[in-house]
Amino acid sequence: MDLFSLKDKVAIVTGASGLIGRKHCEALSMAGAKVVATDLKIADDYWQNEKQNAVLSFDVSKKDQAMAVKAQILERYGTIDILVNNAAINDMFENPTMAAEQSRFENYPIEMWQKSLDVNVTGVFICSQVFGTVMAEKGGGSIINVASTYGMVGPDQSIYKDPYGQQIFFKSASYPTTKGAILNFTRFLAAYWGRCGVRVNSLSPGGVENGQDEWFVRNYSAKTCLGRMARSDDYQGALIFLSSDASSYMTGANLVVDGGWTAI
Which residues of the chain have pLDDT under 50? Predict the structure, then answer.
């Protein structure tokens, strides 16, 4: 079990306030890592009484903010060993009655497209450049880029239809496009930093159940081999594996944990 230990490792998680971001932080901490939980907005009491962990707020799409966070981490811990690029935008539409029309490709706002690129792609680039350089200079580390099944396959728009056949919304082009980009960025960085001892892999999760309408949960679950959506903690084992020496000969790979969604 020592292979899976992260004792005394320093890990950064972006998007730490999100549904699976919290579980990523929890898993790394349980494995022994000192975890820096970051997000655009994150509560000061995120870790409550866990003194070895830290909470920092910053915008992943702003390099100057990432540099400031790096300085704080190095001052406190002296190094960086693990980076989990988890922060991402998944489109939300303020007016549910307009969601179908706004999310339709023909009408999709360029502003939403650009914002997704800024966070989901440029944000991963910036964080990898700023924090990963520390790993490359010291000769080791692990970067995990959180991608998606929609980075590998096109969205099935039929699962967003209610029981009456009405299209509630369309999965827009920005999310699968940006997540697909992350997969190839992972390969680029693995090849670029391999000789520096930095491993770079992607983790592609499936959909997580989180209070969605029952009809959507049924639609989604029917497309998986396991017949269910993921729980928020279903990715913890995979994350520890990619972060630890248990995956020491693994880089440039995409670990798919989707209940069999992409197998059918």
Answer: none
Residue 93: its pLDDT value, please?
A: 73
How many other CB atoms are found less than 10 A from the CB of residue 199?
A: 23
**Token pair listed for 146:** 């959180």
Q: Residue 258 maps to which CATH number? A: 3.40.50.720
Q: What's the order of all strands across the beta sheet hosting 34-39?
A: 54-57, 34-39, 10-13, 82-85, 141-146, 198-205, 254-257
Greatest Cα pair distance in the chain? 58
Distance between CA 80 and CA 69 in Å, rounded? Answer: 12
Give residue 262's pLDDT. Answer: 97
Buried b (16+ CB within 10 A) or exposed e, 63-92: bebbeebbeebeeebeebbbbbbbbbbebe
How confident is the model at residue 159, as a pLDDT?
96
> Which residues span the domain enclosing 149?
2-263
Can you read off the two tokens belonging to residue 42?
Answer: 């994150």
Tell me, what DSSP letter sits at residue 1? -
Report the domain count for the chain: 1
Residue type, 12: I
Amino acid letter, residue 111: E
Active site residue ranges: 175
